Amino acid sequence: MIPPPGPSRIVFGIALSMALISFAIAAGLLWIDRSAREETTETWLERIQQDTTAAAESLDRNLRNMSELGDELAAELSSGELSVEAVDARLKSLVNEHPYIFGAGVMFRPFAYDPNQRLYSRYLVRRDDAYQMLQIEDFYDYSQPEHEWFQQGIEQSGWIEPFYGEASQAMLALYCTPFSLPERQSTQQDTSNDGTVCIDYSIEDVWNLVGALDLGQTGYAIAMTDQGTLVAHPRREYVRQGQSLFDLAETQQDSDLRRLAEQAGAQRSGVLTHSNSLTGQFSWIFYAPIPAANWSLAVVAFRDEIPLAISEHKRRRIGITILLIIGGIGLMGLAASYQLGSKPILWSASIGITLLFLFGIINIWQIEFSEANRDPPEAVMLVDSAGVESYLSDYEKAAQQQPFSTPIKIPTGVFVQAINFDTPHDPVVSGFVWQRYRVPEHDDLSRGIFFPDAVPDYDIREELYRFREGDTEVVGWFFKTTLHQPFDYSGFPIDVKTVRLRIWHPSMERNVILVPEFDAYRLIHPTSRPGMETDFHLPGWKVQRSFFAYRFHDYRSDFGIRGSAMSGKFPELTYNVTLLRNITDAFVSNQIPLFVAAFMLFAMLIIDTRKQNQASLYGFTTSKVLGTAAAIFFIILLAHIDIRRRYVAEQIMYLEYFYFITYFSILAISFNAFMLTATSHNHFFHYRDNLIPKLLFWPLLHGAFFVVTVYVFL
Predict the structure, then answer these.
(1) Which of 39, 203, 325, 622 is most buried, taking the most CB atoms under 10 A from its CB?
(2) Does the pTM exceed 0.85?
């Protein structure tokens, strides 16, 4: 039903247009935001899947070519086309024509080459970027049963489970195929094969291929055999130890990894969704078969790595909030348009609009607090060793091309016991740090740590223990240090702070990279706060999470050490604690006085009247209004000065805008008192005894709060 012609219909039309247009645009913006996120996610996942398939096909081609080369070489020996004397030249020709081959060799079974010589082999392998001809029997007796590659290779063709080659000094994947010399060349009369031809594919080359995939900063790829044995993994010790995916699944009690191993063993392709109970990370695992060797390739892509436009998403959410509030105001106008002269209806609309603005403010606060779950700027969160190795691989490759020394990785752990803010920009942190050094590899490396952000004379470190544990030496320190870390207080009191403990090793000339020792923590999910007391408490703050992170930082200086790795982008280990300000504490201590002042101003506005009997009853006079306003102003001003003194912010803080609006409200109330007592008639101030300013006070006040909230956080 449309109101009758007049002001009611005009208000109805404007309000209806506001509501329809605002809600329509909000719905469209919501659809755009959701579609953009879904499209980005789908495009990213599709690219990862395509890259996985392409990498698996590339590996399959390489392995198939290598097996064909091995079969061809064995056929040449068996047919007599290739004489034993010409094997060396043939092997050299083979690796020159196919540089991706790591090694190639011909190994004879005992006494097959010469009745007077038990073992004989010719093995051309790449060492130090050059090929060398070796004889495996100089290193070990390859005919012994424990060397399965020879036992299998002399019986049948196929790929051997990866192992560490003592002669090649590398992790290898071998294709071996048997051969039998023609009768005129053979020195044996039995029907056994005379030897095996093996073509080597370096596991390092497998890793280089899968490591070239663009999987974000912490995503990684793994390759495994049909038995689940790992061929390539960011944690290379797993490969060296001969571990399988089944072993990892059992150790981590992860049913998804077991299912992946089973799917890989069946040479299937597909995708699994995976949630790591230890780290809390959600990921997709794409897998594809490598038929040539009955291997499989799996790629782990983390949800946190999706290249979403976070800032655009935030702006769209705030835009949707603005549009919903405008639409809500339109609905209030629609309801009020039928009875514009009714005070209860008008007051209901005033209160409703105020609540809408209050809802908008709180919603933007929630959006801002959700930023606490984002990775720190210019840093990468670390939650597992595989992600660390994947992240550092690019740096290690770059270091090989620079005049830097070989990176030395030192496992480092942190446990924080207490944090306190001496000043707004100088947190005091105390706790424990420990490191593990390999013996004797790190005997010439100094033991120690230091914090580059520490304030001089306020940095205490004391060695607590030092002991041997197997082939490692563990050293632990207690520390209490004051960190100078300038914080941004522009959003105070709706702010999130990350206390960052930067950790350096004193041997700056040695290219020492500190890596988190994840094995020292039972849970490493950031929200489980690894490395902190379970009952940790910091007054005025809530600990949201704690985590390790790497930050590539270019110091634009070599610190006087020529060829220092720190002269470029060096991976700096940091331990981070994300703090959310306790909004209740901040509200009570800083914002309640403002709202009390606002209620007092509103009370002054309510008693403003032109009616003499009510004015005398309330004691209303312009001079009393001015006196009360001045008193409120000085009280608020002192509180404002105290905040500036406590936080020493270089910029205007969010809370200060509330003070500025309150100052303006004091002026507005004073001006209203003047205009109300003016002799000349003014419809805005005199209508129904100052009703319009009274109705507008709370909506305009909270509307101003909402506008500055949008301005600060947009």
Answers:
(1) 203
(2) no
Out of 3.20.20.70, 3.40.190.10, 3.40.50.300, 3.30.450.20, the CATH code matching 80-206 is 3.30.450.20
Q: CB–CB of 145/151 below 8 Å?
A: yes
CA distance readout (Å), 224 to 50, 243, 258: 19, 10, 13
CATH topology classification for 215-305 = Beta-Lactamase (3.30.450)
Task: Compute CA distances 353 → 20, 307, 349, 685, whole Å.
Answer: 17, 38, 6, 21
Asked if residue 175 lies in contact with residue 152, where contact means CB atoms within 8 angstroms, the answer is no
At the topology level, CATH places domain 584-714 in Methane Monooxygenase Hydroxylase; Chain G, domain 1 (1.20.58)
CATH dotted code for 376-581: 2.70.170.10
Task: Give 458-501 pLDDT, tens digit per residue.
Answer: 889 999 999 999 889 999 999 999 999 888 888 888 888 889 99
- As a whole number of angstroms, the distance between CA 462 and CA 599 comes to 56
Backbone angles phi, psi at 34, to 5 degrees: -65, -40
Cα gap 678→685, rounded to integer Å: 10
Region class of 608: left (phi > 0), else alpha (psi between -120 and 50), else beta: beta
Question: Which residues have CB under 8 Å from 442's CB, separation 6+?
Answer: 408, 410, 473
In terms of Cα–Cα distance, which of 283, 306, 500 is closest to 384?
283
For the chain, how big is the Rg over CA atoms in Å? 37
